[in-house]
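For reproducibility, we list the full input for the 3-methoxybenzoic acid complex.
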Amino acid sequence: MTATAQAPTAVPTSDVDPFSHEVLEDPLPMHEELREAGPVVYLNRYDIFAVARYDETYAALVDWQAFQSAAGVGMSNFRYEKPWRPPSIVLEADPPKHDAPRRVLQKVLGPRALRRLHDGWAADADALVDEVLARGTTLDAVADLAATFPLRVFPDAVGIQKTGRENLLPYGDHAFNAFGPDNDLVQKGAPRVAELSAWVNTQCQRDVLNPTGFGADIWAASDRGDITPEQAPLAVRSLLTAGVDTTVHGISAVLYAFATNPDQWQRVREDPGLARVAFDEAVRWESPVQTFFRTATTDVRVGDVVVPEGRKILMFLAAANRDPRRWADPDAFDLSRDPSGHVGFGMGIHQCVGQHVARLEAATLVTALARRVRTIELDGPTKRHHNNTLRAWESIPVRITLD
Ligand code: OVM
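The corresponding predicted structure, in tokenized form, follows.
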């Protein structure tokens, strides 16, 4: 028989649980297993499809018509299961509904809007570094820097109230856990969901927000009719959900990368202009957001497999970001590579709308460190923080030498 089109073939399967503690501790072996199994893999444990290679992950990310977000970008399908909170109006929406709030956030968080924040954040970063180094030269890169700096600058930039800010990280941690299966990590967060959600939702109200800030800018967009007044608080909620844990763990990643790659630290010291590319390389290398799901809107062919309509597909951003088919020496943290094209911020219409904010936070902190720190090295056992979606650190003890 001479086939003109390739017939769909049997899909490779895997019994792996990507959300088990063993895998969350070190997902890299699983990423390789799934990449090498084929362009698409069926995960028996959850009855879902998965992509772990760069090309297929990229293709799924940009094809919003075949791979919808409105049925949820976690494992749960909103067609059958009630979401833990009202869905996000950007993340968990498709065109056309997605587009107006997306445009508003893109403007509010865009490079032009951020220019007026740069000098203040650079000064805040210098002040934090001075403060931390005044306490000594052994510190925890997570607790003292990565978890501190975003919380000093971002909530003020949004314009929320001062009290209760300690709720931001636990709320985000739960939101990112909730994209995974209903496992122990989700159960751990469940008792505080009502309390944390109530606090976050209060911060999204117009009368609570500082008159200058991203939150007020979003409400102003609703005055102009760019979004509805019902959408405004949900757009603010997106910032508070997606903008804290991600940057904390992204900054942890770049600090860990430097602590374990002293030659790369010397490069950024010599040329602090490399701080931004260093952050993007760290986002590629570590992929703080490891995974997102989509739902097939139709029978869709991926590689030589048909993913049936209505089924979930799990995109391993982290595995794509280290796919040797795409990246030379993918496991190396290397400032001389061009990391652009990594899918750590996603790709296509849902690509991280806060990425410029994240880069500004990371670059100002790395630049402040580069001014004073000659060397940075690990100083004791590191500890991971497990989350169903995030690749995170609990602790990175480091020892620093100064100029
Ligand atoms: C949202 C949102 C966007 C991106 C990531 C995310 C929890 C949430 O719009 O709420 O993770």
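Residues 7 and 74 are 30 Å apart (CA to CA). DSSP finds 17 helices and 13 strands in the chain. Both points were considered when choosing residues for closer inspection.
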